[in-house]
Structure formats: structure tokens, C-alpha cells
């Protein structure tokens, strides 16, 4: 790795991570990674939106404590915009306040206007007073109109019965009824199946006029995965081989996040999507995935989606939002 510099003192430094294997090793070791910091997300952004992608590791006393993927675009050759989406990712489950402050100070000095850079960052930090105070003290200015990411994690490091009993009662009834109908659960990472659900997603976007991850970005993520089984479709099929519900999922590190959810009219009436998520949780548990991220929600914009996702009673989290540093 190429050493960049030590901007604070001899204790905290940031170095480039140049290979996919090295990045994946650190990423898989982190307890709470996220989709926007995974390798294939960066590669998809590079291909579709012409960002330059860089990845680094933050060290304290030469010991790794965090990793960070950032994107860079030049503006007329005068300065560069740096974007960090939900990073840095901490390698340890618990993080000392000193490490948080010094890591963000390190990023702030590296990506400063003195170096002809402007940093826009959505920190992977919970929305609490302690984090808001230290970001303000380090001259990270909050972008008022950008809401913090809100979602929930379902812990899969439990028995099947423990997971089921944590669900809402009505949801458990939906699952029980679906089990009586002998629906089939299928998993596929074939390109044709990926393309099929993406085309359904494009139609849904036109019909329901919602924002979301672009179709081309998802295609590029699949390509960047090298067909390793981490970008795949799950679906529920009835006795007539009709697809009732399906999802496009991405495994990243110890977590899995859905990108697309689609259900037929029959599937919606029979609550096939609830059954699909349940079967997906069991499948991911078999793969030793630690957490299923429900994929974000906003009570005000899409209350029905929020209600559906909250039915699985994951541990909710809300991040601090987006900040700018000069």
C-alpha cells in the first residue's frame, strides 16, 4: 500500500487500498458494513457516473481501525468534489470517541479546500447528540435538506424459532398460511433472471414515479460481482410456476440488502412478499450472513412500505445525514 500522509500526528494515518482482495478482506471483517461502501458499488459508480473511485484504510499506531471508499470528480480542473457515502466503516464493533474524532479530522484535512477539494460526506454515524456535536466542532456543516438514512437490521445470529417469534403476530400468520399452500422458494444468479427483475423495476418506476437505484447501476453491480453469487434473485413460485413475488438482493460483507421488490397482483393478495422475506432470512442464515438490512424507509413518503418493513421488527437505526467540509 502507498502511504498518503499523517495529517494529525504520528498516530493516525490513511493509506490506499489498491486490490480487491485486500479491500474485501477488511470489509468482510467489519461488523457493520453497508452497500454503498462495498467494492461493486464503487465499480458501478465508476462505470455509470464517471466517478474516480479510491479506497483507503485508516490506521491508529499502524493498526487498522477503519476503511473508507470515496468518489472524486474534477470541476473544470480547478477543484475536486469528494463524496463519501456512509463511511468510514469501523473494523471493530465498538469505536472509541477519540478514534471517531481523529478519523474525521484526518479526512477533513486531506479533503480540504487547501488541497483544492470539497468533501461531501454522509457519515456512517448514528444520529445522536454526541456525533452531531463533534462533527460541528470539526467544521463539518450539515446539509439541512438531506435527511439521514433510516432502516433496520434483522439479526440472523439467532435460531429460526427466535427470529420467527420476533415478528409481528399478523406476519407470522401470513407465513403460516403460505406454508400450507406449498409455495416454492427459488434462488438464481443467472443473468437472464437479473435482467428480468430489472425490467419489471423499470416498469414500476414509470407507473409509480418513485426514485431509486438506477437500472444501469444495478446491471453494473452484477457485472462487477463476477457472478460470485452475491448479486441474486429470490422468488416465490406457485404450483403453476407463476412468480408471485421476487427480490433482487446484494450480499456485502456480513450483511444483505434488497434493491428491488416486485409482486404480482395475486402475490400481493396472498401476502407472498412476507413469505418471500421469511424464506430469504432462512436462506441467508444458511449462508452465515449476520444481518438482513430491510433497505431503508421513510414514514412520510411511503408509509405502506415502512409498515411492511417494520413488521419484521429489526433493530432500527438512523444516520446523522449529510455534511460538507471545506
Record the SSE blueprint:
Layout: E1 3-5, E2 12-16, H1 20-29, H2 39-49, E3 52-60, E4 63-75, E5 79-87, E6 89-90, H3 97-110, E7 117-123, H4 129-137, E8 141-142, E9 150-155, H5 160-165, H6 169-180, E10 184-188, H7 191-208, H8 215-224, E11 231-237, E12 243-252, E13 255-263, H9 265-269, H10 272-286, E14 291-293, H11 303-310, E15 315-318, E16 323-325
Parallel strand pairs: 5-7, 13-14
Antiparallel strand pairs: 1-2, 2-3, 3-4, 4-5, 4-6, 7-16, 8-16, 9-14, 9-15, 10-11, 11-12, 12-13
Helix pairs in contact: 2-8, 6-10, 7-8
What is shown here, in short?
The protein is built from eleven helices and 16 strands. With 326 residues, it is α+β, with helices and mostly antiparallel strands.
Description:
- There is one protein chain.
- With 326 residues, the protein is of the alpha+beta class.
- It has two domains: 3-150 and 320-325, Aminopeptidase, CATH 3.40.630.30; 158-289, Gcn5-related N-acetyltransferase (GNAT) (Aminopeptidase, 3-Layer(aba) Sandwich).
- The chain is 36% helix and 30% strand.
- It is built from eleven helices and 16 strands.
- The strands form two sheets. Strands 1, 2, 3, 4, 5, 6, 7, 8 and 16 form a nine-stranded mixed beta sheet that branches.
- Helix 2 (39-49) crosses helix 8, helix 6 crosses helix 10 and helix 7 packs antiparallel against helix 8 (215-224).
Amino acid at each position: 500500500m502507498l502511504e498518503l500522509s499523517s495529517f494529525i500526528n504520528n498516530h493516525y494515518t490513511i493509506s490506499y487500498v489498491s486490490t480487491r482482495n485486500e479491500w474485501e478482506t477488511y470489509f468482510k471483517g467489519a461488523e457493520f458494513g453497508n452497500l454503498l461502501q462495498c467494492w461493486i458499488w464503487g465499480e458501478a459508480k465508476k462505470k455509470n457516473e464517471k466517478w474516480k473511485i479510491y479506497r483507503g484504510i485508516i490506521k491508529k499506531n499502524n493498526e487498522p481501525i477503519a476503511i473508507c471508499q470515496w468518489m472524486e470528480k474534477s470541476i473544470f480542473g480547478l477543484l475536486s468534489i469528494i463524496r463519501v457515502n456512509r463511511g468510514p466503516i469501523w473494523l471493530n464493533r465498538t469505536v472509541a470517541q477519540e478514534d471517531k474524532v481523529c478519523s474525521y479530522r484526518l479526512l477533513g484535512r486531506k479533503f480540504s479546500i487547501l488541497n483544492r477539494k470539497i468533501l461531501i460526506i454522509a457519515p456512517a454515524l448514528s444520529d445522536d447528540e454526541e456525533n452531531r456535536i463533534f462533527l460541528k466542532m470539526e467544521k463539518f456543516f450539515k446539509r439541512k435538506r438531506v435527511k439521514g438514512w433510516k432502516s433496520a437490521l434483522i439479526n440472523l445470529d439467532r435460531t429460526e424459532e427466535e427470529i420467527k417469534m420476533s415478528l409481528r403476530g399478523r406476519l407470522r400468520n401470513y407465513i403460516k398460511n403460505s406454508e400450507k399452500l406449498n409455495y416454492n422458494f427459488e434462488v438464481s444468479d443467472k443473468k437472464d433472471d437479473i435482467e428480468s427483475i430489472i425490467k419489471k423495476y423499470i416498469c414500476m418506476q414509470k407507473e409509480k414515479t418513485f426514485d431509486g437505484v438506477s437500472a444501469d447501476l444495478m446491471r453494473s453491480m452484477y457485472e462487477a460481482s463476477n457472478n460470485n453469487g452475491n448479486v441474486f434473485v429470490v422468488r416465490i413460485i406457485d404450483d403453476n410456476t407463476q412468480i408471485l413475488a421476487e427480490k433482487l438482493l446484494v450480499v456485502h460483507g456480513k450483511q444483505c440488502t434488497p434493491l428491488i421488490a416486485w409482486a404480482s397482483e395475486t402475490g400481493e393478495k396472498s401476502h407472498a412478499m412476507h413469505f418471500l422475506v421469511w424464506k430469504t432470512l432462512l436462506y441467508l442464515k444458511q449462508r452465515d450472513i449476520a444481518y438482513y438490512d430491510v433497505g431503508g424507509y421513510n414514514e412520510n413518503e411511503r408509509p405502506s412500505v415502512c409498515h411492511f418493513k417494520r413488521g419484521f421488527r429489526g433493530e432500527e437505526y438512523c444516520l446523522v445525514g449529510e455534511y460538507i467540509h471545506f
